[in-house]
Amino acid sequence: MNAAIDTTGIIAARTHSAVRRHRLAWALATALAAAFALSMYLGDFPIPISGIIQSLFSPLTGLANRSVDFIVLQVRLPRALLAIASGAAFGLSGIIFQTLLRNPLASPDIIGISRGASAAAVFVIIILGWTGLAVSLGAFAGAVLTALAIYFLAWRNGVTPYRVVLIGIGTDAVLIAAISYIFTRARINEVQQAMSWLVGSLNAARYADLLVLAAAMAVLIPALIALLRSLDPMELGDDTARALGAPVEPARLGLMLVAVAFAAFATAAVGPVGFVAFVAGPWRAPCSRGQGAASSMPR
Amino acid sequence: MKLPTPASLPDLTTLTASAPPRAQKAAQLTLGLLLLALMLMAIAALSLAVGARPIPLETVWHALTAYDATATEHRIIWDLRLPRTVIGLLVGAALGLAGAVLQGATRNPLADPSILGIHAGASLAVVLGVAFFGMTQLSSYVWLAFIGAGAAMLVVYSVASLGREGATPVKLALAGAALSAVMFSIINAILLTSQRTLDEIRFWQVGSLSGRSMDILLQVTPFLLIGAVLALAVARLLDGLSMGDDVARALGQRIGLSRALSGLAAVILAGASTAAAGPIAFVGLTVPHVARAITGPGYRWILLYSMLLAPILLLGADVLGRVISPPGEVQVGIVTALIGAPFFIALVRRKKLAAL
After folding, report:
1. Cβ–Cβ < 8 Å for B258, B241
2. Which helix (H) or strand (E) holds A272?
3. Residue pLDDT, tens place only, B191-206
4. What ranges do the domains of chain B cover?
5. Contact at 8 Å (CB) between B177 and A110?
6. Looking at CA atoms only, how far is residue B20 from chain A in angstroms?
7. Any CB–CB contact under 8 A between B184 and chain A?
8. What does the alpha-carbon distance between residue B91 and residue B217 come to, in Å, rounded to a whole number?
9. Residue of B nearest to A149 (CA)
């Protein structure tokens, strides 16, 4: 009797939290759609909503209005899409790192990976005088090299989260010092040029950036889903996860590579936008209390 | 967080019969402190002697004991190197203490003044002062930075205190990081539109001891001393907090009060040291880990070791920065990270550091 009541209670609670999660997912999706619509609508050049919709379908309908089409299709659309793609990539990268390293502060912008991209970009902009796409390439290489350096420095019969975090902050400090050193030695207008990259911006969004990022995510997201199942036991601690039969080291390496790739591609596209990756974890807690890592992934 | 192991409960170990090894360890640690103090004195002497114009130690001694206002070298020592050295000592000690206290109070190895918004607040205040009020004097930065740091920490603490559980470590760290992000985006917006401000700020934000005069030293010293006393006084509370909130509460400790006092000590120390030397991140973040590796758990020792190790690093880096690229100087904030970080990484690799 008691058992029966308990079970219905548990089932009810589970259904309740599943319903809640569904509602939240819909609410987030609606918010995303609204943000996208606003981003398409707002700008220096006022375009009525009908004009925007007409312009969006103009490749199909053939009704062209060149000045409006340019703004909608060449300026606002890539910008909004790039914002969604890079935001998702930063968020995923943040949540993977925070879960793997079991520290809510350990997003890529805190443990040195974004800083690797920044230091590389500052180096190529100020010392080598590169511009445009070359800077993105440099930043990408910087992020990947920094991540590899952190991982191998932290490797000692395996990698523990705590060591990765400490090595990460050490690496971050060196990179900050390097950036500051270049800044104090360079001419002020070069510093300003590098600063505008460091702040991160969607201003110069191009389809080329979007394509690269989208292609990368098309590979990374399936890889992530494949690796996801191993993430849940790992949150319980390495030893527990191992005892549960999870392949801890390979899974961690795979997940870290995926997370680094997300961060590196997004940073190369829009610059080291801070904070987006960092808030992924705190956001996730109220959205999926105790539901494991998988539920927080589609965002 | 791991469950506390018996080794991390110093008050309980006194109850067991392990008194002789414990006394031996205390003697060893005291000896270590004396050695560090000697090292610090040697580095301070070097800091007085080394610079663009090297001064023999004998002359340094004469300048200190029998000051002669007509001798140029005596003037250099009293007007330039002595304030710089004392500020280096005090700021270093303050950074080490602040880092150790914050890491203990939040139980997060990543906690440091920059994570909790103190550096961002100080930087924002200085940037606003330079951009909108045309302040360019180092001495006016001191007050701006101090007010900014205090205001930031107050906001961070109140935001983190919202909600039922009060200011938990995670909420403190998250609120600090979030508000830092807000403040840095304001800073960046200003720096992107005002080249003049960027030009001023890029030298301040590196963190440097050069050009600090006697009046800056006198302005910040009282705060640094009060902060240091308070930090050493909360050692016992930090030991309690390190066992976890529930255990500490069960032992009769008032969690909220402990954390508020620790936070106050850290703000005073970090605010005053940022005011004197600019935002130096690396020292407060890493020195407590080194101290903990030497002493083991027990915050009284961790704090004392942090208080001596940090100025050794800071002042040593400052001396090195004066000589590595003549005729110029490399700012101490850069040198501490460039020489300190590889050492720190090597230490993390060699030793299994105790998790907080």
Report:
1. yes
2. none
3. 888 888 888 888 888 8
4. 109-277, 280-356
5. yes
6. 33
7. yes
8. 10
9. B345
The minimum CA-CA distance between A298 and chain B, rounded to whole Å, is 23
Please give the residue of chain A at the shortest CA–CA distance from B185.
Answer: A199
Give the residue on A whose Cα is nearest the Cα of B207: A180
| CA distance, residue A133 to nearest chain B CA (Å) | 21
Average pLDDT value for residue range B338-349: 83
What's the maximum distance between 2 C-alpha atoms anywhere in chain B? 67
For residues B70 and B343, the answer to whether their CB atoms sit within 8 Å is no
- Is B338–A174 a contact, with Cβ atoms under 8 angstroms apart? yes
Q: Which two tokens stand for residue B25?
A: 């360890």
CATH number of B109-277, picked from 1.10.3470.10, 1.10.10.10, 3.40.50.10320, 1.10.10.1100: 1.10.3470.10
State whether residue A279 sits within 8 Å of chain B by CB: yes
Cβ contacts of B192 on chain A, cutoff 8 Å: 192, 195-196, 199
Q: Which of B22, B58, B174 is nearest to A105 (CA)?
A: B174
Interface test with A, best of B195, B330, B334, B352 (most A CBs within 10 A): B334
Partner A, chain B 199-228, Cβ-Cβ below 8 Å = 199, 202-203, 205-206
State which amino acid sits at residue A187: R
Judged by CB atoms closer than 8 Å, whether chains meet at A167 and B110 is answered as no
Chain B: give the shortest CA distance to residue A297, in Å.
20
pLDDT tens for A45-54 read: 888 888 888 8
Q: In whole angstroms, how large is the CA radius of gyration of chain B? A: 21
Q: How far is residue A100 CA from its own chain's centroid?
A: 15
Tokens linked to A276:
């987006």
Render the burial of A225-264: b for 16+ CB within 10 Å, e for the rest.
Answer: eebbebbbbbeeebeebeeeebebeebbebbbbbbbbbbb
CB B107 within 8 A of CB B101: no
The total number of residues shown for chain A amounts to 299
Interface of A with B in 92-131 (CB under 8 A): 103-106, 110
| Chain A 193-212, residues with CB within 8 Å of chain B CB atoms | 195-196, 198-199
Structural domains of chain A in order of their starting residue, each with its CATH number:
9-296 (1.10.3470.10)
3-state secondary structure of B9: coil
H or E element in which residue A245 lies: none
Helix (H, G, I), strand (E, B) or coil at A116: helix
- State the pLDDT at residue A221: 92
pLDDT tier for residue B16 given thresholds of 50, 70 and 90: very low
DSSP B289-354: HHHHHHH-S-HHHHHHHHHHHHHHHHHHHHHHHHHSSTTS---HHHHHHHHHHHHHHHHHHHS-PP
pLDDT in tens, B24-66: 888 888 999 999 999 999 999 999 888 878 888 888 888 888 8
Selection from A28, A141, A145 nearest residue A87 by Cα: A28
pLDDT band of residue A8 (cuts 50, 70, 90) is low
Judge whether B324 is closer than 8 Å to chain A, CB to CB. Answer: no
From B110, B184, B206, residue closest to A165, measured CB to CB: B110
Query: Cis peptide leading into B327, omega within 30 of 0?
Result: yes
Nearest-Å Rg of the Cα atoms of chain A is 22
- Of A36-45, A177-186, B30-39, least confident by mean pLDDT is A36-45
